[in-house]
């Protein structure tokens, strides 16, 4: 069968590449055409465009590059109609992908539209549900709580296939033994236990959060060594604006090794909170917003969820402490960190609660289950 995939960012490229591999294992005749990145390219098929030419986030970058985005969307629409795939598989990136889904449903309604890694309408932009219902034939979810959300709130059935982060960390742990002496020797560290700082992947997140994180851990620097997980595309000079005067190390491309050998962590929201939990590292979730009014606007007008971390959303309750907006201060972060360091009253409870999160996520094998479900549905459609 012919599969057309669209991934618009690095994480989508990673997850789509694993899905492609799983599809090929089940469909020897699979033919791929896609917008994606290097990881998808390594799986073969034909790359119509590199996602980087379309991946702009934020109001100003999108406006500046709007002609390129519109041109890319036009090329993608035309390419889909000319190639006539057996299925269109959209991977996250809802701003672009929902526009493509609308076009395909209007001009090529015979092409099924599948969504792998659904738009997070449970958090905000719930109005997109109308477009999903109209233009998307099936959602293959990687978050267990989405099943109840779509089914009970919107009467829309979806498939939960498992979470690919479980696969990635399980594979890493099987192939990398926890060798702390080797880790510290490789990175020029000493034998003190590690506190990890995961301050985000974007410059604004790092700017807003890292200075508070560093101030929080400063009194602990004699007992612990502080390691920052460097984000791809953010150079050492940018971090040095905030780390000057602090005894810390920035390590690139080693988020999993850092977490594997950490005693505790301060983490911004996002997938990093889930990764930290799957490594069973107690954490405090930190997300500073300078403008208190903007935080209140987000919290009570735009954002529809009681939590911002995937850990708490999956558990359905507070497992990890979230310090958001004006609550994120050096003092508050330090006090919460002390609760989850060895000897702290909250450490064992959090570690036990992580087990419930792992249980809800389910076993590894998300890409394989997604591929299996997709192929089965396509066979039913084609009967």
Quick overview of this protein structure:
50% of the residues lie in helices and 16% in strands. By secondary structure, it is an alpha/beta fold.
In CATH, what is the homologous superfamily of the largest domain?
Glycogen Phosphorylase B
Task: Give me the CATH architecture of the largest domain, please.
Answer: 3-Layer(aba) Sandwich
**End-to-end separation:** 14 Å
Could you describe the largest sheet, including whether it forms a barrel? 7 strands, parallel
CATH fold naming of the largest domain: Rossmann fold
Number of domains: 2
Strand content: 15-25%
Level of helix content?
40-55%
Structural class label: alpha/beta
If you average the pLDDT, what whole number results?
Answer: 91
| Poorly predicted parts | none
> Biggest sheet: strands side by side, in what order?
3-2-1-4-5-6-7
In the CATH hierarchy, what is the class of the largest domain? Alpha Beta
Question: Would you mind describing this structure in some detail?
Answer:
The protein is α/β, with parallel strands linked by helices and 383 residues long. The protein has 2 domains: 2-162 and 365-382, Rossmann fold, CATH 3.40.50.2000; 167-361, Rossmann fold (3-Layer(aba) Sandwich). The protein is built from 18 helices and 13 strands. The chain has helices spanning 10-26, 38-41, 59-64, 66-83, 94-107, 129-135, 145-154, 164-175, 180-187, 203-217, 236-243, 255-260, 271-278, 292-302, 310-315, 330-340, 347-361, 366-382, and strands spanning 2-7, 31-36, 46-50, 87-91, 113-116, 138-141, 159-160, 194-198, 225-230, 248-252, 262-267, 283-287, 321-324. The strands form 2 sheets. It has a 7-stranded parallel sheet, with helices on both faces. Strand 11, helix 13 (271-278) and strand 12 (283-287) form a beta-alpha-beta unit. Helix 1 (10-26) packs across helix 18, helix 5 packs parallel to helix 6 (129-135) and helix 10 (203-217) packs parallel to helix 11.
């Amino acid at each position: 069968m012919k599969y057309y995939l669209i991934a618009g960012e690095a994480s989508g490229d990673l997850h789509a590449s694993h899905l492609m591999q799983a599809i090929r294992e089940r469909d020897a005749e699979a033919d791929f055409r896609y917008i994606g990145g290097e990881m998808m390219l390594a799986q073969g098929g034909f790359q119509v465009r590199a996602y980087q030419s379309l991946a702009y986030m934020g109001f100003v970058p999108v406006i500046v590059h709007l002609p390129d985005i519109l041109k890319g969307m036009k090329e993608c629409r035309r390419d889909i109609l000319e190639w006539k795939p057996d299925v269109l598989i959209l991977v996250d990136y809802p701003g672009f992908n929902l526009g493509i889904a609308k076009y395909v449903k209007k001009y090529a309604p015979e092409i099924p539209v599948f969504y792998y890694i659904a738009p997070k309408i449970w958090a905000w932009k719930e109005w997109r549900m109308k477009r999903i219902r109209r233009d998307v034939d099936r959602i293959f979810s990687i978050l267990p709580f989405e099943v109840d959300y779509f089914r009970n709130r919107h009467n829309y059935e979806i498939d939960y296939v498992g979470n690919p982060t479980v696969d990635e960390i399980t594979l890493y742990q099987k192939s990398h033994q926890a060798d702390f002496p080797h880790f510290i020797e490789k990175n020029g560290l000493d034998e003190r236990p590690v506190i990890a700082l995961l301050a985000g992947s974007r410059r604004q997140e790092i700017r807003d959060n890292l200075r508070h994180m560093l101030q929080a851990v400063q009194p602990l620097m004699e007992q612990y060594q502080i390691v920052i997980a460097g984000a791809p595309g953010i150079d050492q000079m940018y971090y040095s604006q905030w780390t000057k005067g602090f005894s810390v190390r920035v390590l690139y491309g080693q988020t999993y090794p850092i977490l594997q050998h950490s005693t505790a962590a301060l983490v911004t929201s996002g997938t990093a909170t889930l990764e930290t939990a799957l490594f069973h590292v107690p954490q405090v979730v930190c997300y500073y917003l300078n403008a208190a009014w903007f935080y209140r606007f987000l919290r009570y007008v735009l954002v529809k969820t009681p939590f911002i971390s995937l850990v708490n959303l999956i558990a359905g309750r507070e497992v990890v402490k979230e310090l958001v907006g004006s609550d994120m201060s050096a003092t508050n972060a330090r006090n919460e960190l002390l609760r989850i360091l060895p000897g702290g009253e909250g450490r064992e409870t959090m570690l036990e609660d992580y087990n419930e999160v792992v249980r809800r996520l389910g076993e590894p094998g998300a890409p394989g289950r997604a591929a299996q479900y997709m192929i089965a549905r396509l066979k039913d459609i084609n009967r």
